[in-house]
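Technical appendix A lists one of the benchmark inputs used to test multi-chain prediction within the project. The record comprises four sequence entries:
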Amino acid sequence: MRKVSKLLYVLLIVVMVFTVVGCGGDKEPAKTGDNQTNTEQPAATGNEKLDALYAEVAGLQGEDALKFFKGLKDKGLSDAEILQFFIDLPLSQANEQIAKLYKDEGFEMYSKSYPKGETYNDFQWSKGSGTKITGPYSKNDLKLPFTDYVALPEGPVGDANKNYKLGVVFHGFSHPWLINWADAAKWEADKHANVELNVQDAEFDNNKWASIMDSFIAQKVDGILVWPMVEAPTGPPVDRALEAGIPVVSVDRTSGSQAITSRITGNFPANGAQAGMYAIWKLAQEGDLNAKAVMLRKPLGSTADAVRTGHFLKVLSYFPGIEILKSYHDTDNREEAFTNAQSALQAYPEIDIFFGTGDHEALAALEATKMANRMDSRKDGKKIMFLSIDDSKEAITQVKDGLFEVNTPYTPLISDIGMRVLLNIVTDSAEMPQDVITPNIPMVTQEGDVIFGMQTQTPDQWYEYTFGPALK
Amino acid sequence: MASESSSINGGFIVPAKFIKNNMLIIILLLELIMGVILSPVFLGNTNVQSILINTAIFGLLAVGQSLVMLVKEIDLSVGAMMAFSPIAAIALAKKILSASGTEIIMGSNYVVDGLFIIVVLVLLVSALIGMLNGIIIVKAKVPSLIVTLGMLYVLSGMSYILSGGYSLYLTNLKGAKSLGSSIFAGIPVNFILFLAVGVLVILVLKYTKVGNRIYSTGGNEKAAIYSGINTDFWKVMAFGISGLSAGIAALIYSSRLQSVETIQGSGYELISIAIAVIGGITLEGGRGKISGAIIASAILCIMLNILSLVGLIAWYKTIIIGLIIIGAASQHAFSRKTS
Amino acid sequence: MQEPLLLLKNIHKQFPGVKALKGVNFSLEKGKIVSLVGTNGAGKSTLSNIIAGIYPPDAGEIFIEGRNVTISDPKIAEQLGVGIVHQEPTLVPNMTVVENIFLNKEITKNRIVLDLKKMKQESEKVLEFLGFQIDVDKKVEALTLVEKEIVEIAKAMLLKPRILILDEVTAPLNKDEVDHLFKIIKDLRNNGMGIIFIGHKLQEIIEISDSIMVFRDGKNVGELIPSENLSEKEVIALMLGSILNEDLVTGAKVPDSGQRQEVLKLAGLSKQKLFEDINFTLHKGEIVGFAGLKGSGITELFQSLQGIITFDSGEMYVKGKRVKFKHPKDGIEAGIGMVTNDRQREGLALTLDVKDNIAVSSLNYLRNKFRTLNTKLLKDNAGKYVQALSIKTPSINQFVQNLSGGNQQKIVIAKWLLRNLDIILVDEPTRGVDVKAKNEIYKLLINEKNNGKSLLVASPETRELLSICDRILIISGGKIISEVYRNTKEFNEEDILNTIHSSQRHCTTARAVFQG
Amino acid sequence: MISNGLDDDNFKKGILKNHTFILFIILACVMIIGSIFVPSLAQKGNLLNVLRLASIVGLAAIGATMVLLVGEIDLSIGSIMSLSLVTGGLMVGYGSLPALAVTCLTGIVLGIINGVLVTKLKINSLMVTLGTMSVFAGLANVVTRGQSIFLYDSPLYLSLGRGYIAGIPVPVIIFLFVGIVLSIMLRYTKTGKEIYFTGANKRAAWVSGINTDKIKLIAYSISGLTAALAGPLLSSQTNRITPIQGVGFELSAIAVAVLGGTSLIGGKGTVIGTILGALTFQLLLNVLTLSGVGTYMEQVLKGFLLIVIVVVYQVIDKPRR
């Protein structure tokens, strides 16, 4: 009996010890994070026009900052430049809470390492372009927005009588976003008769991911297209492939390998920044720059979460009136996000903004709010703001129905770009840059408002490009 | 099932017995043949090596799990251990070394130094946690399923807290790479390490007192106690070794991917149990051979490899694995009945 | 005079709930066989376990050859030269005979590596000494009961102990084997070993011991020196003490042959390797005994009558209706229930309470019109039988595991009585039951017979059958070899045993085949 | 009575040895302490949320309890939930009722499959259900091709997870209904007693004329059904069915059952206990979430509580030998 209790103490102590160590552990990245770069100075973007603007805005805050933002259009910035302005906007110290949060979580490091730059051949995306397909795996009706980007004609590629074997490794044949990712890649490959594809699912196990890479290397495939879940563990396998002389192209997330042949990145920064833009713009519309926000976030440490949240906070950091009530993390699981949202609604009687770093999070927040009958619980009966990311048909429909204020698209339908880049490389028909940037997609608002001079899209304009199964 | 039919009609007893006793090896051979037929690259160097490394990782877990099952317990915490032990070890090493002024973590998540102490700590931590499992179970006399399930939650939670969700790079860690990818005579050193551990365990069980201790503890605990064997001690040992082998598996895993991540090894506990079962270790305790578990781990890894070589969608893989488990379990059930 | 080999002074031992030993004094001389007798829970096994170091005494001193020792665990006992054969099996099924005999006593070369060869020779030597041929590389689970028991003894003998404790070793052995064993034990005694012998079979005890130590609730109450004129009655009297010991009840008058109604008829019932060509008829209101050795197939015959196992060939009629049961419940529905010889394994749910254990087979009849259980009815009935069978329990909600062997046995019987079966098969009605409870159970059975039930009783203790049965069938090698009626001159222990042993063919394997 | 065997004579001692009672105390403590530190805990809305979530995991846990009672274990609960959800989901086109019907039906069928494998093939249930776990999970993905199925147009289906009847969330009502029915079944019917007896001593039960195979089959099909029932409650909260909805659910279910005082050896435990277990489990998580210790610390404490509670149970009902 006494033994038993003694035991429990032991266990307790062990747990506590590690917890203590742990607290040390998870502060750590932050410190070095801000040692590396002093966030006080505006980051040099290489774009004089923008740098000048940043110098101007640095001192401003609250109403002044707002006025400055509103004035951007008159300063002769194009829509794209306006968005770029908000993406590279340096952190302001005006809102201590946000500035501190930004440092503590080491967002600087993430946004620095995330590829930025010009699109290949300065490609500009025009509304309505793209190709309708039926997902080979999901059987969804989809429209790939960027089929003209790094375009590649149908029919055999490279040496017509050579057969090109390509490997594709990703995670999640049980995950809507990722299935559509695979759909786009497969569709592109199927267009070319002499391309043979082997698509493998590593089921969110990076060791399996590595094994599959190795089996591709063993098969001496001509090229590999990958979706790395996280950076660190996916570096070595990619490097092994490169050593074996097999080009590797990553799409969306980036791998730990610096030498990777080419990487197609989405636009996490644009997501966060636009969510921030919208929040400020909307608050300004309502005439009160004071607001309380809850952030429902993807798993701690995932690039998507860090980069999006970071850029969101940067924009908000100019407005002292904004308070971040709390961050809740989930494991990419809508049920968890839902529970978190419920708790948030219980813990905080006043919530003006729900920011979700993924569609799960925002949608969960919406449902939780509905169930708690808190939709219009802000003062003078205003509706709670839902800032969503990831343009699933489900999410866009919420914008259309006026339940979500905004959705900033992040589409899986970019893997076809990756596939084309890879084909170009394996057939050495064109020189490809290491970083292939996908065009930023303007956010989707119910009315297609103009925000700080930037034209946004209506749900109907974007709907055809959205991913996932249709609601109805 | 061959054993079934034949043991009924006495004629084929001998071949039936042979098949029954060497079932696993036969399956393994069949698989190899299948692999060669289905894929030209199956026997290619890279492929073989990646199979071997996987076998090493799962095999180690399975060996530990088998020992625990031999003493009639079960360990669900091995998977979480694979993430926790290296993360905790690095966190501790950081604390310890920073006292002596050397920072082992650079750029927020690049581990650059202290390989040796980290390795030692990994082994230490994993063994200790394993033993902690055992101690709780024997002292408080509570079912291991629940204790280790609880430990699974605790450890995986701790891993996140300790690492803050960041996965750590070992790419700049001197020696880590060679630990992971050094190859001896075409065979990954890690695999040799695993074989060494496996063979050691087998020999110890067969040729020293330890074997009798373990088997009697699982086979008939009361008898063991009446013969003056401290069964509690051996149970704790089994859990300790299970933890330790999970630690070693974690080292192989991390050195292969040259990184430490919070989710590594999640779900492996069930795979390790499955392998042990396929290898003929039963939950009744005191039955089965470690060698079986080792072969079984090879069987499973080769199977997975073949399936991915022929490019089958993961959905069907899971189904096949499930069927294999049921098949194996029932096969043992039958052979037990007939004997 | 020289120090006694073993001397216990004022030993106390308390378990949660019970005082097992209250100041036992005991001494064992070199070259003596001392028997411990006493009703269940008198403390015999507790004492032997203390000597064997299974658990330490709460108070008291132990001297071995005058040296005051504390035996904190079995290993130490071993070093002090104590060897013990426990009442319950202590072999590991999945390990070989050698491994079992040498469990925790392994011989090693250079301290680490096991010396398999040597151990093999050693264990063969021991077995040879005991006069048995057993393949030492066989797994224990493949052995017969007898062989297992021998291995147990070999295990205890291995280190040539000075003190040997034999707790209930003779149970599974047949007469010859027992005689053989006794011969060996006597040799050992003559070589100066001190032997403590624990048993229920008083004849054996009187036959072998130099002195008999009688225990009663945790104290040793007296010592008897066996001699021609020491009768079991005296021993029993001392065991029971105040409890007056009426002579074993004798079965009431044989029902007059007039209205004898057949309830069970077997014609050529056979099951391979277990029993063959069993023909007999059971009448309403009679008790038929089955005398035979372990492994003579009686247990399996009974099992096949309730459908616990199925017979291969032959015909079985219940009340004239031909039946063959595939499942125990078929037997019960036809009115046949078996009180198995292993109540803990096959009779009771120890972790459930008395009322549920009594009611479990009769739940169909304890339901109200909503088809749910009528708890009141259930309690009443359970209570009724607790009364009727005078089962000693604080309440019908008591867990069965907290009751004594006798009371547990009664609960198993009560289960069938509540179900109101016509035919009850009782296999070893008094196994592990003390003398007092024995008599109660005999009375109970006879009482039921008088209420018009029919019973089959099997028992290794012939006198038990003699005392309650109307006739006795003698089984050997799975065959009925003779039948004796009460009030005939052959209806006595000697003749019956003679019949058995004269005809006895070794078929000890029968039971082993049936393990599990 | 069966569960904790209160002796009429020493009732006091009994009550202290009573798992349900202890659990109740713990629950009360969590409630009181919690609401001191986290005021928002005691709010009606919050408690309703806790109840709703508790009902979902609780339903599955009741099934787990049934299987544990007969001395077996069911690791496939989560996969059964996913598979039955998606098969039902295929029917939402034809309306909510057929969808729900199919879901429950599938659940029962899958449960029976488990039961048959365990009883007929006589394989250790942990192994069987470990196998069926991955088989069912795989099938769930095959059925929907890994896709989600949306429920926006199935108000009835949705109301399962979100609706209220007389101010009480529907899941809670379903949960309590199932709970009450089953605990009546366990206490006051033949099957119930036979379930306990089978769990306590299978061989004895068989000899006593109980069809143990049938009993186990029943237990497994109940487990399948409850798992299938819990599914819609879960998915309707978030408007969609996914083929991975139930992943990991089996472990929480078993954990809750054990928390409720169900023994892994069999023959010991009550539905009431499991219900309380579910409440405690969920309330604790809720307290932690509200007090903001963070998702990952929650997990740690969850595991810690689990270990502590089984130790406590073990200590209080150490059998006096």
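Chain D has one domain: 54-291. Chain D touches chain A at residues 38, 40-41, 43, 45-46, 49, 53, 141, 145-150, 152-153, 162, 234, 237-240, 242-245, 285-286, 289-290, 292, 294-297, 300, 304, 307-308, 311, 314-315 (CB under 8 Å). Comparable benchmark entries are summarised in Table A2.
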